[in-house]
Structure to design on (640 residues):
């Protein structure tokens, strides 16, 4: 069953990657990156559990915490760009 | 035995929702429908998958770590989706299809 | 089966890398690069490198994206089209080189071969001696901070130099911010209420997790490099949410520079104290009456130095980009 | 799976060359830096692949005295530090690119060199 879930996650990663490549808007790509992050957390959690080393769940925890900051950095980037585009 | 069956059901459903989310994010016609598919299934798939693993792990440090991961993902995932949708809506980017015209904001 | 997952991840990795190079929009390239880094970390994890995967997670998914976006906000984000240069020469060069390298791989031992020459040299000794000499379970931390401490000292000095370089190039002699620039630095993401509240809630957990990695590094995956990167992300998150000015206020520049130098100095000082006590440079066994306790003490101090320098250098690099406005 | 025993090294070769292509053929300086990161990651992949041992696990000893197979810790140490050094050097490169943009108004290599060529 673990293998089925892992395969589903990998296929989803591939689909999200296709969405990131196709675009068309920048928001689609950020969405794909965000999805990718969540799927990586799940993948790492399952593989950590499968390999019998649950102490490696720390890694998934690191992702769960860090992934969000990337999205905020993107927001700040958009904000800064808009802010200075209105410059006379 | 019952726990095994329950956890496998949860894992299977989790895998299914994760896959549906990916399919939705790829196939749906515009940004907002895609976002809706991706963010909802993200939360549900995560909940079910991590829940399935938790049932397998039983009461141990692993379960507590998994609960923490789940807590953070449940908190940040919807927030990230909200922030993204908000940014897309407020942007006067004409290439965001289906975006209503930005009103003075 | 796990091998098959690894192969799938590697294939996605190649596709992403091609897309990064081909796409004309630099923002898209940076987004794809962060996907690339997530894939890379998952690959490292499947290849049994937990510590490396943790570092790649903290650096690739967090800091690298933040720094690239910080720089892109100051420069144009589209590549100029049709620069009219001939493409066939570089393509021919890389095709030939790729063919040569792939041809050479047929002489390599296959993946995971236990009799490969790499595994015959010093690694078995490290694995055998770490529990005896240091009574630590994470061999990676032991090798990093004790057996190969010279090497790590060099790396810390490189990070210090790079951090100082970024500060000198960007922050020194910076033209004063315009009124608009000051307004941009003061607000940050304050107007995004929900992300702000959730982000503020997250900061203590990120820093706490970083400290956990710092001090738990000898028993599980972790250590100064990973901890430094994660704590830096926490501090940067505060600056993103509350505006650059508020972010700078919690770690003023003099303190930041002091931390950068202080971490590296702490590392050197541990080595010199060892010399004064009659050992070799960076030999920790003499730091305490009991050699094992001495080793553990030395590793703790050195890892703390690494963590301080990495945190402050990354935060300083972020501030250097964020505290600037795009050229007109 | 024997057939795929060298797949990691092939991916290493491909990634290395994709990165190199960006560095030598793309005129955009940020693109060059992205190519450099791909190039670096390829080298990381090579080292970590070499460290893998069949049936092994990450080199963190669980129960002392129990015989267990571990992957090679040495490449992990080298790459762990190299990742952090890599991001510091990329940051330095980005700082130089930002300064170039401010002085020359462009980050395309051929436009930067154009004034020199005319002389």
């Amino acid at each position: 069953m673990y293998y089925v879930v892992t395969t589903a996650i990998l296929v989803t990663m591939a689909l999200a990657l296709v969405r990131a490549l196709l675009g068309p808007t920048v928001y689609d790509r950020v969405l794909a990156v965000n999805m990718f992050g969540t799927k990586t957390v799940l993948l790492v959690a399952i593989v950590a559990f499968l390999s019998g080393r649950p102490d490696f769940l720390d890694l998934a925890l690191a992702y769960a915490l860090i992934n969000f900051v990337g999205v905020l950095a993107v927001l700040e980037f958009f904000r800064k760009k808009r802010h200075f585009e209105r410059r006379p | 035995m019952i726990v095994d069956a329950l956890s496998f059901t949860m894992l299977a459903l989790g895998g299914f929702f994760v896959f549906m989310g990916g399919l939705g994010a790829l196939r749906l016609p515009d940004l907002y429908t895609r976002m809706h598919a991706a963010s909802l299934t993200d939360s549900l798939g995560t909940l079910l998958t991590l829940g399935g693993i938790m049932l397998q792990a039983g009461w141990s440090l692993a379960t507590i770590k998994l609960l923490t991961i789940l807590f953070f993902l449940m908190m940040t995932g919807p927030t990230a989706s909200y922030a993204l949708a908000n940014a897309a809506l407020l942007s006067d980017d004409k290439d965001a299809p289906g975006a209503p015209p930005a009103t003075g904001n | 089966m796990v091998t098959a997952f690894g192969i799938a991840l590697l294939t996605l990795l190649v596709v992403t890398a091609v897309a990064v190079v081909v796409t004309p929009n630099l923002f898209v390239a940076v987004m794809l690069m962060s996907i690339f880094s997530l894939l890379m970390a998952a690959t490292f994890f499947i290849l049994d490198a937990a510590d490396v995967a943790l570092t790649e997670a903290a650096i690739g998914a967090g800091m690298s994206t933040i720094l690239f976006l910080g720089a892109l906000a100051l420069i144009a984000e589209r590549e100029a089209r049709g620069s009219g240069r001939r493409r066939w020469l570089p393509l021919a060069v890389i095709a030939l080189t790729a063919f040569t390298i792939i041809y050479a791989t047929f002489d390599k031992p296959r993946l995971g071969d236990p009799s490969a020459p790499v595994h015959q040299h010093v690694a078995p000794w490290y694995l055998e001696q770490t529990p005896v000499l240091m009574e630590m379970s994470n061999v990676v931390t032991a090798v990093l901070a004790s057996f190969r401490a010279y090497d790590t000292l060099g790396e810390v000095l490189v990070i210090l130099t790079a951090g100082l370089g970024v500060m000198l190039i960007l922050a020194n002699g910076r033209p004063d911010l315009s009124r608009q620039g000051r307004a941009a630095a003061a607000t940050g993401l304050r107007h995004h209420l929900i992300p702000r509240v959730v982000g503020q809630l997250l900061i203590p957990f990120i820093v706490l997790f970083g400290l956990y990695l710092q001090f738990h590094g000898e028993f599980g995956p972790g250590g100064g490099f990973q901890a430094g990167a994660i704590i830096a992300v926490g501090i940067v998150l505060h600056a993103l949410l509350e505006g650059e000015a508020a972010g700078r206020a919690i770690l003023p520049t003099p303190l930041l520079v002091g931390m950068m130098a202080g971490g590296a100095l702490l590392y050197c000082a541990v080595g010199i104290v060892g010399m004064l006590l009659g050992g070799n440079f960076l030999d920790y066994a003499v730091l305490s009456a009991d050699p094992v306790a001495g080793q553990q003490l030395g590793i703790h101090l050195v890892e703390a130095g690494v963590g301080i320098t990495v945190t402050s250098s990354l935060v300083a690099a972020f501030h250097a980009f964020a505290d600037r406005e795009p050229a007109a | 799976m024997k057939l795929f025993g060298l797949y990691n090294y092939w991916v290493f070769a491909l990634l290395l060359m994709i990165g190199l292509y960006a560095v030598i053929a793309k005129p955009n300086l940020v693109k060059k830096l992205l190519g450099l990161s791909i190039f670096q990651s390829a080298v990381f992949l090579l080292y970590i692949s070499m460290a893998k041992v069949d049936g092994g696990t990450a080199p963190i000893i669980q129960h002392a005295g129990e015989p267990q197979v571990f992957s090679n810790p040495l490449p992990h140490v080298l790459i762990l530090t190299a990742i952090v050094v890599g991001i510091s050097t990329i940051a330095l490169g980005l700082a130089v690119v930002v300064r170039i943009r401010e002085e020359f108004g462009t980050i395309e290599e051929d436009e930067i060199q154009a004034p020199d060529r005319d002389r």
Notes: Chains B and D do not touch (no CB pair under 8 Å). The longest helix of chain B spans residues 61-90. The two ends of chain B are 57 Å apart (CA to CA).
